[in-house]
Amino acid sequence: MLLTLIVFLLILSVLVTVHELGHFLIAKKFGIFVEEFGFGLPPRMFGIKRGETLYSVNWLPIGGFVKLYGEEGDIKEAKNRNIPKNRAFYARPVSQRVMVIAAGVVMNFVLALTVVSYIFTQGVMVPTDRVHIEKIVENSPAETAGLKSGDIIKTIIAEGVEKDIKSADDLIKTTSGNLGKEINLIIDRKGREEQLVITPRQDYPADQGPMGVVISVFEEKKYPIEEAPIAGLKQSLVLSWELVKGIGLTVWKLATFQSVAKDVAGPIGIAQMTGEAIRFGRNAVLEMLGLLSLNLAIVNILPFPALDGGRLLFVVIEGITGKRIKTNWERHIHQAGMAVLLLLILLVTLNDLIRIFSK
C-alpha cells in the first residue's frame, strides 16, 4: 500500500511538473516575468530565489505550479510593482500567450512519446502472421501429437488440401471443419520444419478447444534506438486518437445524462491501477505514465473553462476580435469551470469507491 501511494504521487508529480515546466520554459524564452516555480502545492516548505524567480518546495507532494506575473490580467497590479508592464503575461502578443498556454500540453505529449519510445527499445508485443503455441493442455490431442510450447503452426493438410495458417482465425476455422478427422500439421520448431499428425476432438471443454492449445499471433520485437522514436510517435498518435474518441464519448454521455463506462477512473481508481502496474514491473508503470501523460494532454486542451484549452480559447477570441474579454468575466468563468471540474472529480471518485466496495 505504501509503495503504491509513493509511486502514485511520483507519477502525478512527474505529469504535472513536466506540464508546468512547459509553461515555465516558454514564458522565460519570451521574457515574461516568472514569479515562482513550485514543486508540490502550497503551503510552502521553503524556497530559493535564483535570479528573479522563486523556486519553492511545497508541503503537498502533488504536482507543481508556475506563477506568471500578470497572468490574471490585473493592470493595477502591474502598475503598482517595479516590473515593466510589457513583462506581464497579459501584455504579451496573442501569439506568445498561445504558445505559453499550449506548451504544457506539448510537454505532456513529448513525455508520452519519450516513454513509449523507450518501451519500444525494451521490447513490445507486435501482431504477426505466425501462429505460436503458447501452452499445451495436459491429456489433450496436442500433447498426444507431440506439439510443444513455442511451435509455430505453418500449414494444415486436411483431406489432401493444404491451408497456410497466418492467423488465429485460420487455425480455428480449419480445425473446426475437421473435428474427429486426422489432419497433418506442418510446424516450425526452433527453425526446423516438422510434420505431426493430430485428430481434433469433437467433444472438448469450452476453455480448451479441439486441439487443447493456447495460441498467440504476437511476438516480442525490440526496436533499435534510432527507429524507436518513429515507432513511438506512430503509437502515440494512435493512442491519442483512441483517447480522444473515448473522452468524446464520455463527455457526450455526461452532457446527455447517460451512464458512463464503469472503467472511467478518478484519483482512487488510478491509484488502484498503479498498484496493479507495480506488480507487473517497471515497464508496466512506465506504460501507465505514458498513457496518463497523453490523457492529461488531451483533457487539458479541451476548450473548457479552467483548463488550458479554456484559457487558450479566450486568447484566440481576443486575437480574432481584437478585444480582450473583461478580466473579471474571464476569472468568474474559470472559477465556475473549476467548480464543475471538482464536482466531476468527486462523482468519479464516488464511482471508484462504489466499484471497489461492491466487489
Automatic annotation (TrEMBL):
Q: Name one GO cellular component term.
A: membrane
Report the superkingdom from the record: Bacteria
Ranges that cross the membrane: 98-120, 284-304, 333-354
Q: Which residues form the Peptidase M50 domain?
A: 8-344
Q: What class of enzyme is it?
A: hydrolase
For whether the record's keyword set contains Hydrolase, the answer is: yes
Which NCBIfam families does the protein's record reference? Answer: RIP metalloprotease RseP (TIGR00054)
GO MF, one annotated term: metalloendopeptidase activity
**The protein's name:** Zinc metalloprotease
> InterPro entries recorded for this chain?
PDZ_sf, Pept_M50_Zn, Peptidase_M50
UniProt cofactor(s): Zn(2+)
Per UniProt, what is one Pfam family of this protein? Answer: Peptidase_M50
Give the UniProt family note: Belongs to the peptidase M50B family.
Which organism encodes this protein?
Candidatus Gottesmanbacteria bacterium GW2011_GWA2_42_18
Localization per record = Membrane
Q: Could you give a single Gene Ontology term from the biological process aspect?
A: proteolysis
Catalytic activity, EC: 3.4.24.-
Q: Which SUPFAM superfamilies match?
A: PDZ domain-like
CDD domains from the entry? S2P-M50_PDZ_RseP-like
- Which lineage? Bacteria, Candidatus Gottesmaniibacteriota
According to its record, how does it sit in the membrane? Answer: Multi-pass membrane protein
Annotated keywords: Hydrolase, Membrane, Metal-binding, Metalloprotease, Protease, Transmembrane, Transmembrane helix, Zinc
